Amino acid sequence: MFRFVSHRLMSAVPTVFIVVTLSFFLMRLAPGGPFNLERPLPPATMANIMATFQLDQPLYVQYGTYLKNALIGDFGPSYIYRDYSVAELIMQALPYSITLGLWALAFALVGGVTAGVIAALRQNGWVDYAVMSVATVGVTIPNFVVGPLMSLVFAVILSLVPAGGWGDGGFRNLVLPVIALGLPQLAVFARLTRGSMIEALRTDHIRTARAYGLPARSVVVTHAMRGAMLPIVSYLAPCCAALLTGSTVVETIFTIPGVGRYFVEGALNRDYTLVMGTVILISVFIIVFNLLVDILYALLDPRIRHD
């Protein structure tokens, strides 16, 4: 296992390098720039600004400088928030995104797995059809539609919860963004759990367990669930990375000061360093969660062994 983990960590280095390289040059190829305003600045002022941020240097020099600084955790200054570095902005925003993402992950995982198991045990019944219908709706309707609708109904019309803002981070402030962020993932978990549970219940060792007269709860929870969780674990890596780094849409709709909001503002204002910092953060999250998923695979399925 140690050898496997070390190999995966070594392979993560070129992956991050490729992501950083592609993101760097694609950002520069996009039209416009961080200081291209509707009312152009005087040439002398623009030249001073470009020299201050080293944007007047050749592109390969800028790339080398950024890569060298990124290796020590220096992602450069933000072009929009002049008094802050990108690292400071990310450290300020990350706790909000992680808190929101953890609640959304718990909501999606518990609700989705529970609904999927119930649907599998009631296969082809009205409960199964109802769960899958709701899951299909949850997958097809994007959260930028669900979020404003819930805000309109529960905040504006019914006045049950605030329409946006972090507030004190309590239940009333988080309930709408958590549901909007976690609902599509809950639907995916429900569909994955139903399919894998139906397949697990038809395997030979489950038939053997039933033939020995084991209680139905023990057969489902102890034996079938272990094999049925493998597709869920596989999907956890991209799901966790997306939820824990924050949804750009949900954080923007509910005015939550998380990483997603900075990514949107950075992209709109061509803040190269801010966008690059958030891209690197998401890449690292995905790599780490993929590694954790592979380790969980070996723990859940005894047939999988990593040397």
From TrEMBL:
It holds the Pfam family BPD_transp_1. Its main location: membrane. It is found in: Cell membrane. The chain crosses the membrane at residues 12-30, 100-121, 133-162, 174-192, 232-254, 274-300. InterPro entries: BPD_transp_1_N, MetI-like, MetI-like_sf. PROSITE patterns: ABC_TM1. Residues 94-297 form the ABC transmembrane type-1 domain. The keyword Endoplasmic reticulum does not apply. Signal peptide: none annotated. Belongs to the binding-protein-dependent transport system permease family. This is Oligopeptide transport system permease protein.
